[in-house]
Amino acid sequence: MLNPSLTQRINALPDTLSRLMSDPAVSESMARADESKRRLTRLLPLDGVEQSAIDEYRRDWLARYVYNSNAIEGSTLSLKDTELVMEGEFVPTDSPARYIFAARGVADGMAYVEWFVDRRHPLDIDVIRKLHEITAVFRQVGVSCWGWCRFVGLVVDSITTNHATRPSSRRRSMMLMPNSVLIRLSRYQTM
Prior knowledge:
Shape: flat
Helix content: 40-55%
Largest sheet: 3 strands, antiparallel
Distance between the termini: 45 Å
Low-confidence stretches: 143-191
Strand order of the largest sheet: 1-3-2
Number of helices: 6
Radius of gyration: 19 Å
Order of helices and strands: HHHHHHEEE
Number of strands: 3
């Protein structure tokens, strides 16, 4: 069943992103990113060692992205399990299949995004819908954000109670969703 509110927000997304570009701070950040990319491009072609290092960095970044994205939703896969699932070498028997499929879905979704970026395809409603379809293909229930965010020193305790339960004198809030859903992150000492 379609969610009319979500459909309306998705349909408005291209206009929202266009308005963002008229913001001087966003426009300046994008210009700096473009200049950084031009400087990097002037360094090309990379030799074998440099290209290998870049490829390894991208694999590591993607594994951490998938791991943390799924951890926010409660996945119990470890970072190593996530890496192995993404390589297609391993299916952990002690984790629910939905976490394994979710890891694959997020990785496939990111590959889809990279494919469109490489072709300079504009962001439109069809791209957003296809991305959602790819990342949520194996999900049978709605997504909820809860659990550990697993960044070093940060814990996501809840998105509904609007408070962090971890003892800490330094707390900060972070807007994670455009509809003003706040989660509180608290710093803690790692063991």
